Amino acid sequence: MLTLTPEQQAAAAGEHGRGSAIAMRIVAEAARLMGAPRLIPVASAHIDGALYHGDSGTLFAEALVDGGASVQVEATLNVGALDLVGCSRVRLQPHEREMAKRMMRAYEALGCSPTWTCAPYQAGHRPAVGSDVAWGESNAVVFCNSVLGARTNRYGDFLDIACAIAGVAPDYGLHRPENRRAAVVVDVSGLSPKLRASEAFWPVFGTWYGLTLGSEIGVVTGLEGLATEDRLKAMGAASASSGGVGLFHVAGVTPEAPDLATACGGADGLAQCKRIVVTGPMMRAASARLSTAEGDAVDAIAIGSPHLSADEVAELDRLLDGRRVAVPFYACTGRHVIRAIEADGSRARLERQGITFVADTCVVVTPILERTDGVLMTNSGKFAHYAPGNTGLAVQYGALADCVESAVAGRLVREERLWS
Amino acid sequence: MELTADILLPGDGADNAVVEGDVLALTAPISFWGGVDPKTGTIIDARHPERGQNIAGRVLALPGTIGSSSASAVLLELVHAGRAPAAILMPEPDAILLLGLVVAREMGWAIPPALRVSAQDQRGLAGQQVEIEGGMIRSRTAA
């Protein structure tokens, strides 16, 4: 049974204005639906609601602005439907373009930071271990919980901005420490060291993990010394696309898993855990699932889901090594990275080699690709998952190095031995 | 057939308002984002068994929901476009999907009721013409 404090009741009744009242009532209604007993303060929010799906979302954001609402905590913005930086051309019709722009402006008017990235954790938004936050966007949620150790549920559209305005969130699920313990031990130590050390492994493992564990919490053992932040980002995004993953632990790597037993809530918890030993055939099957195309055709390349870090753009630059690409090549990233690569000259150089940067948005959430059929190659498990449904293109999955070689050759070039 | 269900969210109108419709009972969970066309209410998920059916004006029985955090945005858009279901039946509340109705109510738009109905009871109602009054669901299809 939900109990609101007198202050929360007053806010819901309109003491701080109509916009704040709407936000507090939405948070309270979500708490009631989910059986949360109370609302707890949040330290920050990441808002996934500013992507245009139709006029109603724009009207809601403008109703909050008209009602005088503003965010009470640090709030970053996920991608919108437009590239406001102007790196790429978005093919929206005039009405949709106008409404998408009004929506993005309304969220900025509420006081949200115009980060426009699905990797806010690489754009300076890094809440402290153990803090409660309200984050949307599945990859950001899983990174926030797992890698940063802050606590968030999977906030859907509208609830994220309502929590940011109200400054509170329903107390249930992953906000509670007892719900963050691992119930499954996932052992990858039997896979070849070469595979585990390869970039291509992480999105594939993440895809398998999401399909196998769903919303169950697992702790992975066998990745000590191999996990970089970009690799965990790629794994988490893939796992949250293929399954309802909101939190995973990696023993010896992530903050709530200094060792296996701690991740499971102690020796007794560890003893009660299910155990899964991951094998090569499991990884081959997950890898095969990511590709939906046959033959060696490649009509476009897209990387950067989640948005590329500056390190990942530098790796693209190194692998391309001055060569020109023969097919359209989209590199999706945030304006925080665009600023950095403009400063060091790599943006202009890569654009001369045929790379199209996409800022503030990405190719699976808004129409950017030149065609709606053919084959898209990607190194992202998340792009591989969503591209067929959202863009119409079939997918070939490969490592970044494979994507670069395929782009230069104009046909599929892929290192297959890794999986044998 | 007649059953009493918990009201997750009341619809608009007076407490004794009656909702009527035929039950579209989905046989697999659905993700609204990418699964339902927000402009028309047609099920567009290529892998869904009820692909091609339209949910607008139907009593939509959901065995479960999956996936995207933008389900609420799609449901809000359906309400705004006048293409929402007449009622939603689901075994457990889903904070993401139902938020679409909570927000629509805040916007002053008429919303359908949402009731808690087990997957088993949903199967019993499949294809029936029903009327819903408060938490009471009555079949009007001749036995």
TrEMBL record, chain A:
UniProt xrefs under InterPro entries: PMDh-L-like_dom
Any keyword tRNA-binding?
Answer: no
Name the domain of life.
Bacteria
Instruction: Name a Pfam family for this protein.
Output: AcnX
Domain Phosphomevalonate dehydratase large subunit-like residues, every copy: 3-405
What are the TM regions of this chain, as residue ranges?
A: none
Task: For this UniProt record, give its keywords in alphabetical order, as a comma-separated list.
Answer: Iron, Lyase
Query: What GO molecular functions are on record for this protein?
Result: lyase activity
**The name this protein goes by in its record:** Phosphomevalonate dehydratase large subunit-like domain-containing protein
- Organism of origin is Alsobacter metallidurans
The organism's lineage?
Answer: Bacteria, Pseudomonadati, Pseudomonadota, Alphaproteobacteria, Hyphomicrobiales
UniProtKB/TrEMBL annotation, chain B:
Phosphomevalonate dehydratase small subunit-like domain sequence ranges: 30-104
* Key words, A-Z: Lyase
**InterPro entries, per this entry?**
PMDh-S-like_dom
Mind telling me which SUPFAM superfamilies this protein's record contains?
Answer: LeuD/IlvD-like
Presence of the UniProt keyword Lyase in the record? yes
GO molecular function terms noted in the UniProt entry? lyase activity
Q: What is this protein called?
A: Phosphomevalonate dehydratase small subunit-like domain-containing protein
What the entry lists under CDD domains is as follows:
AcnX_swivel
Keyword Lyase (UniProt): yes
UniProt superkingdom: Bacteria
